[in-house]
Amino acid sequence: MIGARGVPATFGGIERHVEELGARLVARGHEVTVFCRSNYSPADLGHHRGMRLASLPTVGTKHLDAIVHSGVSTLRAMAASYDVLHYHAIGPGMLAVLPRYLSRAKVILTVHGRDDERAKWGRGAKAVLGAAGWLSARVPDATIVVGHHLERYYREAHDRRAVYVPNGVRAGRQRPADGTLTRLGVQPGRYLLFVGRLVPEKAPDQLLEAFRRLPGDHRLVLVGDSSFTDRFTVGLRELAAADPRVVLPGYRYGAELEELYSNAAAFVLPSLLEGLPLTLLEAASYGLPVVASAIPPHLEVLGAPGPGRRLHRPGDGDGLLDALRRVLADPRAERVGAARLRDQVMRTYCWDDAAERTEAVYRAVLER
User: Fold this and answer.
1) Number of domains in the chain
2) Are residues 213 and 130 in the same domain?
3) Which pTM value belongs to this model?
4) Which helix (H) or strand (E) holds 290?
5) Angstrom distance (rounded) from CA 227 to CA 345
6) C-alpha span between 265 and 288 (Å, rounded)
7) Rounded Cα distance, 34 and 42, in Å
8) Apex CA 16: angle with CA 15 and CA 20, to 5°?
9) pLDDT tens for each residue of 272-301
10) Are residues 141 and 224 in the same domain?
11) What is the DSSP letter of 172?
12) Which domain holds residue 199?
């Protein structure tokens, strides 16, 4: 596995995808190596959940972190005898051209989203990622996508058949309010929750602007921090400082995050761009009412709007404010709708199924 920051996963959807998928492939009898960035995973941790971890250095800057590590990992992997090199994300996938034509290993690329459309990149980086997107449809032995909207994109834009393998989700582990909420100064059922990187395409600034116009004593907890977006994050903190109801606790993991999911009034994700957000699946697995932008990845998960699943047009601040009002107006009805959503999500998004489908892709390219 090449392209993720590494495992154990703390923050980042790709990292959790790699961890859950890799662990299940090990359980199915495969030997799995995850190439980890030394600035993310502990260098002295040799194994995790049956996966072998190979910690390699990188250059920890916005433009070089992923590509340098993927290059070093590719060279190391090509010197070994792997059957499959599995890249994650289109940027790291640029390096797949080397093993595809200079080694006997089969090359798989999982596309987690249109990275060339992310707002944090400048014109030059977007041009490079655009080229990477072109290569992603032509170089790998197989291209996997996590959403039906990406499957359609590869078919219509590149005339390429991509294999749909969605993310999975585990059942939410309910935790009582036993410390984290007290430390953050929030009460059970009296706060809205956002979880994710504080980057422009997830629109936390638009959420803050809408929340400031929401009357009442509910609070807003924005769990996350910068992802090479320090200037944006500083502006976000300045905006939050104008409303004492807003809490920015940084990243939270494990039991702390489970406690926050378990006791929120609703989960909010007003993103402008996503692949298939794991945080949305996680929130649904806790039976949380959801407010989300009506972008294709969210619609795949949520379907039609209604109690427990309130939608708004992406970028529409007034629509977001109305959705927030709706989700707080009748908590009992929203919870009933959210319970139906939870059952639907748990039936549809399963890590065991993802591992089985991925294994089938491996076998297909190896037998070809």
Assistant:
1) 2
2) no
3) 0.91
4) strand 290-293
5) 28
6) 7
7) 13
8) 120
9) 989 899 999 999 999 999 999 999 999 999
10) no
11) P
12) 180-348
